[in-house]
Amino acid sequence: MAIWRIEEPESFFLERVSLHKEVTHPYKRLQHLAGRYLLTVLFDDFPLAEILVADTRKPYLPGEKYHFSISHCGNYAAAIASSTNQVGIDIELVTPRIERISPKFLSETEKAFLAQWELFDQLQLELTTVIWSAKEAVYKWHGLGGLDFKSHMQLSGPIQYKSNDWMQIPFRFNLGESLEVVLEGKIFEPLVMAYLVT
Known about the structure:
The protein is an alpha+beta fold. It contains five helices and eleven strands; from the N terminus they run βααβββββαααβββββ. The strands form three sheets. Strands 6, 7, 8, 9, 10 and 11 form a six-stranded antiparallel beta sheet that branches. Strands 1-5-4 form a three-stranded antiparallel beta sheet, covered by helices on one side. It has a two-stranded antiparallel ribbon with strand order 2-3.
């Protein structure tokens, strides 16, 4: 797993990563290149040229030599890859915008959890963003689309802080049968990250 703060020009990434024609916006193109560049940092032999994109917009490798997930937000990119495990990753900038969209993804239990932090505006904002990021990571891990962010992915217990400032985020994945998963997450200034490995 890796995070990259994008400060380089396109030419830096183009030395190792080819550009897909459908990415035309300069900023999105830079994010696209940085995310794929990270895959080559994680695994020298990562076959970038073999990446395909599913109907759900999930990038994947035929034959699944590596399972991987990419995220980008602002001038940051993140990637996770494994030769053995399913993975999902997401990074998000912490902004008040999350409060406007929170009714679309927060369950009643999650709203009650966040209400405990209403006297701590910044922490509540960060934790709301962590929950959103965790759901995005689960969505990418699942990879097949068709998920409801309120009912299919729910926080299933308290978020636990570990001594190294990483969090364990317990989630229940409800699609057919219920599956308990634990994500790892961290609040970095100015963003949060969550990832899942199973």
